[in-house]
Each structure stands twice: as C-alpha cells, then as structure tokens.
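Aim 2 progress update. The chain analyzed this quarter is reproduced below.
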Amino acid sequence: HLPFNSSFDPGPAYNGFGSDPISFNSAATTPLAAGTPIYGAPAPMSDAFGVDPNLRTPYMENYNLNFQQQLGKRTVLQIGYVGSQGHKLFRFRDINQPGQAAIDEYDYAANGCCVPRVFAATSPYFYINYEESSASSNYNALQTSWRVNDWHGVTSTVNYTWSHSIDTASDGEDYVPNASQPNDSTNPNGNRGNSNFDVRNRFTWNFIYQFPNRHGDWKKLTDGWGINGIVTVQSGQPFQLNYNFEDDY
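Predicted structure tokens:
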C-alpha cells in the first residue's frame, strides 16, 4: 500500500504504533568508517494506516432492459438500457486532515500577512490513512446495436453506447491518482462526480467481407479469402489537476 499522499505508511502491517511499532531509519550519508554505525537512531514512522473494524463486503446490483427487432431476413436492431449501482465500496481517507480553520491559520499569520506559519499536527502522525467501505457508484447507459448477417458476403455489427459513470471513489486504492482518496477527507462525499474511467460516447464497427469463390482449377488459391476490420471511436476520460497529492488539503 503506497498511496500518493504519503511515503511512510506502506500498510497496516507497518504502522508505527501498537504493541510492536515499526520505526524507520536512513543510512548515513558520510563515508563508512570503522566503529561508526551505518544507521542513526530509529524514529517512529511519521504516517499511519488503519482499517475500519466494521468493514463491509461491497455489493452491487445490475439491471438491463432490451428491445430487439428483426429488419428483413439478415438484419437485427437492438436498443437497450443497462444500469448498475455499487454500495459499500472501498476507499481510504486521511482522518487526520486538518479542518479549514487550521489550514487558514497555517497559511496566514495572525497579523494578516501572507507569511506561512508552522503547521501543528493534530496527532503524532501527519497522515492517518483509513480504509473503509463507504463509497458508492452508479452507471447508466443507452446501448444500441445493428447487426447484418451474411448479406452478399458482408457480416457486420455497428454499436453505439452513451453512458455515464458516477462515483465517490473510482478505485479501492490510489493506483491512479485521485481514484480512491477524496480531495477533502473531511467531506469525502463531496468527491462525487464522473468516474476516472467514465467514457460518455463509444462507437464501434466491425465487418467481415467474404470474396466470392471462383470454383476454378485454382480454387485452393482463389477461394476462401476475405477481409475484416474493426473501427473504435470514443470520447476521452476525465482527469484533474491535483496530480500526485502534493497535499491533500
């Protein structure tokens, strides 16, 4: 576990508190010398990681409704609605994040000048990332399909999907920046918005064309040939500028 907002909380097994706290240390930068320790004195880890003891198993519902109509002997049109909802999804947040008043005090001195002040942590740790099952999601899509089967040697499918995916956490961990931890851990549901993987429009077209067989003396070379292809066009995925969590407030 290496989320983007911290370097010293690799997971619940490596916390700097509890019955067997884990400390960290760094090698000396000076040249090695006999009788001189390579490492200095160990120090408690500056960040921590915890898990909600009431963690739930995530669950979701899927539902769809489709209408299909045959148009002629070789053509089928289908229009459908597809939806889903996710509940109790995993995410983590910094439960030690300061409130707005503490942030303002840090940013400005008491006399009103824009002189940064030293921020006083609210606990012995700076970040306390807390895993919990409290995120949610929903997905809605209009899916259309037009299929042609062996019409003068052509077999083809054209698909168009309009969809919208919304959630409060797009991943259980921040393998992708801003996928799991909210920008404001004091208001995690304020992160509700387009999923990181939201693709609003998607068009695909695949086709196969079988060349007519000649049935001549050279049929082993001339018959059985065809050409196929796939075209995919889709809109882009969202991104945001708070990359790599320079700070989570």
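The helical segments are 100-107, 219-222. The mean pLDDT is 83. These observations will guide the mutagenesis experiments scheduled for the next reporting period.
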